[in-house]
Each structure stands twice: as structure tokens, then as C-alpha cells.
From TrEMBL:
Organism listed in the record: Karstenula rhodostoma CBS 690.94
Listed name of the protein: Beta-xylosidase C-terminal Concanavalin A-like domain-containing protein
Pfam hit, one: GH43_C2
InterPro entries xrefs: ConA-like_dom_sf (IPR013320), GH43_C2 (IPR041542)
Domain of life where this protein originates: Eukaryota
Occurrences of domain Beta-xylosidase C-terminal Concanavalin A-like (ranges): 15-161
Amino acid sequence: MLWTSILEANFNGSLGVIARKKTSTKLVLSVDLSFKSTTSSGEAGIPVVLTKLQHIHLSIDSSAASEVQRRSVWEAQRDGARTEDSCYPGIVPFTPHTTEVEAVDEHKYVFKAASLNHPSQVVRVGEANRSDYVWGKWPFTSTIIGAFATKYGNDKEIAPAHLSPWSYTSVAQAIDEDVYVPSSNHYPRREYT
């Protein structure tokens, strides 16, 4: 599920996050994700936290993990209005799989996924423009990207997620409008469970 929202969740239960501050304009974050939730509210994926209250993420939730027909949902919320588009890309959200977010410029994020059994069959799940979700007088924070897993406080069930390995690759830094300097920073894939 690729979606944006205003955070109003109560995280009284388990929440695991691996995250870092975005340090270059163009980058690629890749995380291998295996998610086997037995809870009706479990979720795991990769977020782009734009501001304190607004984020976009590609994730697997418990309902999608149990569906026969796997579904990816693009959902947007702005000024109280909600829109939703659904697509059926075939391999999303089969697990385990690789999830990826690419910052292609200062504003645009592209989300992709591929089955670990067929890594060359990459599906472009969706894209989001930062300016579509950051508006009004919301407090600004530096963009943070990473991986997460949660069961939203459901203590009676489990939602194990394996978020590993992951890599952060800096591609380029903007130095002027539409002018980029290539980056040589690459943070190799690391193992986390």
C-alpha cells in the first residue's frame, strides 16, 4: 500500500523503525522486507517522513498480506479530502521482496517493489510529489527515510518483520535549480532484524 496521511495513530504497542536523515537531493533507499503478520493491524514498509505530521510510505499491511489478489493502493489525504486509486501489479506485496524509494529530484519520490525470487521484475508502484503533501503551516522537519514495522498496539498477536539488508545510495546533490553534482556516498547493505 502506498499512501500518505496525517499522523493520528496511537503507538502504544510495538513499533520498530530504522531511519536516517536524507542527506542528498537524489538518492535510492532499498530494503528487503519479509512480513508475516498474524495481527489484523500489522504493517511494515518504507516511509518518507516529509514533515512532523505528513509522510508517504510503501508498505504491506495485514489485510494485503492475506488477500488472494494482492493489491497496491495509492491513497492521498489533503485538506480533509481523500482520493484512492488501486492497481493490481501481481508481485506486490508478495513477501519477501525488495522495496525501494528513489528521490529523483527535490520534490518527486518514486516507489518500486520486486519479489526476491524475481529481482529483475521490478514494479513501479507509484510516485508522489512532495509539494502535493506539504502545505499550509505544518512544522517543517528535514526529510527522514527508512524502514518500519508495527502492530499498532495489538499485544495479543504478533507481526514479525525482517527488514534486511538495506542500503542508502546518494546519487546527486542539487547546487542550483536543475543543476546537480554527482555524489560518491554509498552506505552498503546492512543486516537488521
